Amino acid sequence: MAESPSAKRKRDENGAAESQDKADAASSFPLAEFSVCKVLRESARDKTIFLHGQVNGASGDGTDAVVILEKTPFQEENVAELLQKYTKLQLQMSNDIYSTYCLYLPPELNEIKTTVVYPATEKHLQKYLCQEVYLIQETGEDYKTITLPFIQSQSFSIQWVYNILEKKAEADRIIYENPDPANGFVLIPDFKWDQKQLDDLYLIAICHCRGIKSLRDLTADHLPLLKNISQEGKEAIVKRFRIAGAQLRVYLHYQPSYYHLHVHFTALSYDAPGCSVERAHLLSDVIDNLEFDAQYYQKRTLTFALRADEPLLKKFQDAGRV
Ligand code: M7G
């Protein structure tokens, strides 16, 4: 029987103190030893802040870490509790029928989603640093001569992807799996989604087959895989979360951060990070394009944005392509 995020939360609250303890014990990030070096990015609109800091171990040598703090969306089922229980309301200003207040919540209703990358590489610091961006128009030839050699030399480790596929991490979070080695995939909540409300639903489908780096590698041979992801992914989401396929945005990133083919599933009503036109390619369009031309993504010029100090931008500049 499908379990909604709110039902899951209630079950967690009521019965899962033990598993929470285990999770706490397993968490190894020493927050108390984290000292902030720099704010990489912050957004008042998204209520997030990205911090670069160092963890000072016993030896005193700092190890870089990225900590992302994010105020979480409201959960409908908690709102009444939030307004009535244990809450302090402090008046800020009042004018005629208008007034504003500060509402002080008890800690259990005031959590902050925290994402940690530790140890963080220079590339992680760069990924989260707020910078100017430039559009690149990458031809098929540019991909072969500039982008491919670059990503082969220095892309992010995809160990976390293999850990998911081999059930060495996040195994209990898998929503659906088609185990076929060529045309199968694992559907799992993205780590950007805390699963507590459906408004910001975000899952990823990671294909079992290794070696498909990105959209650029896709040919008509991959249509069975892509169709499985589209159809079975949507079915699994309807079954578990009661969100219809027509209310999902299903897309690939180009460029991705991690070069092992994966597909993003987000709630259509959610303005998810990375769903802008210069990065997101709808899976339905990708399938259609490959049916139209088997080599579509080897030939096409693809547009994407690069941040100012990304080394790939420098490669395009050196080649006179920007
Ligand atoms: P991407 O298009 O390669 O890059 O997507 P992006 O991170 O710049 O969007 C990778 C997706 O995988 C992103 O949506 C990440 O939030 C998600 N992700 C990254 N990591 C390291 C993990 C992880 O360890 N577990 C899960 N479940 N999702 C992750």
Assign the CATH architecture of the largest domain. 2-Layer Sandwich
- CATH level 3 topology of the largest domain: HIT family, subunit A
Rounded mean pLDDT is 89
Order of helices and strands: HHEEEHEEEHEHHEEEHEEEHHEH
Strand order of the largest sheet: 8-9-10-12-11-13
User: In percent terms, what proportion of residues is strand?
Assistant: 25-35%
Looking at CATH, the homologous superfamily of the largest domain is HIT-like
Using the coordinates above, name the CATH class of the largest domain: Alpha Beta
Total helices: the number is: 10
Listed once per kind, the bound small molecules are:
7N-methyl-8-hydroguanosine-5'-diphosphate
C-alpha Rg (nearest Å):
22 Å
Topology, number of strands: 14
How many individual domains?
3
What is the general shape?
Answer: globular
Which blocks of ≥5 consecutive residues have pLDDT under 50?
Answer: 1-26
Helicity, in percent? Answer: 25-40%
Task: Write a short abstract of this structure.
The chain is of the alpha+beta class and 322 residues long.
Indicate the topology.
Elements: H1 5-15, H2 17-26, E1 34-43, E2 48-56, E3 62-71, H3 79-84, E4 88-95, E5 98-104, E6 112-117, H4 122-128, E7 133-138, H5 140-154, H6 159-165, E8 176-178, E9 185-189, E10 202-207, H7 223-241, E11 248-253, E12 262-267, E13 280-282, H8 283-292, H9 296-299, E14 302-307, H10 311-318
Helix pairs in contact: 7-8
